Amino acid sequence: MMTENDIIKISDAYNHKTMLKDLRNLKNAYPELEILNIGKSVLNRSIPAVRLGSGKKLLHFNGAFHANEWITSLLLMVFIEKCLQAAHSDQDLEGFDVPKLLAEKSVWIVPMVNPDGVDLVQNGFSTDNNPYYRLIIQANKGSTDFRHWKANIRGVDLNDQFPAFWEEEKSRRQTSGPSPMNYPGPFPLSEPEARTIADFTRENEFELVMAFHAQGEEIYWGYRELEPAYAETIVQQLVQVSGYRAVRYVDSDAGYKDWFIYKWRKPGFTVECGSGQNPLPLKQFPSIWAKAGKIMLAGLQMA
To answer: Could you name the CATH architecture of 16-117+191-302?
Structure first.
């Protein structure tokens, strides 16, 4: 479904600078598009949120909690553009009546939760502009290869940061300090990126949230038997449109969807897109979009 006239290009590793440029271009093409800067990363990069739709029922999608999963940012940006195109042309998208859905609902999308980590994975670091270079080199055991780095620039796993049995997750992880992955931080919401998402969630009455990750082609949907009964109907539809596998419970706490379910007792989902080893190659994007895009649309419809 990608065309030469699309603003979002599937041509290179997707980073924060490109995302901001694409958001400006989308705003120029679709002036009604609402874009907010909802917070800042450790290194003062903006964390923008984009609103699609005008309906009162609110949803939230986010991506790139983990640095080497930046392909999820690209998925969400393509979703934004494809929905805008469908709404303006008054056409369906993949069989979903997007104009009608966006009149009934609004989805707030944060494409890149962890911009510093994404930049580190793609570009490495410079001692000139990164005050944490000694910390991250030590955390990475002396290596300057950051392709498999998941954490933020302070070595904290942002998806282990939320106040839902955080102490149990900290004990389970057994990672005592900054690390490429699995360090929950010194205390819940210690990192500005996690606080930004938590504050934004508290400020809005979201009926459903989806956090997009990579990889595994799985949908995690329950948390400690606190999810509402109707979440099962939703996940069955997500599985039907995607072929992904639904996983209700895992031995994990303190994730974003865990916290959302724990605090609000509403449907929350972690969607693991694609298969292979992160960062997933761009050549996989069409096949990932074919499934993940339908999950986004079905979530919009089922909320």
So the answer is: 3-Layer(aba) Sandwich (3.40)
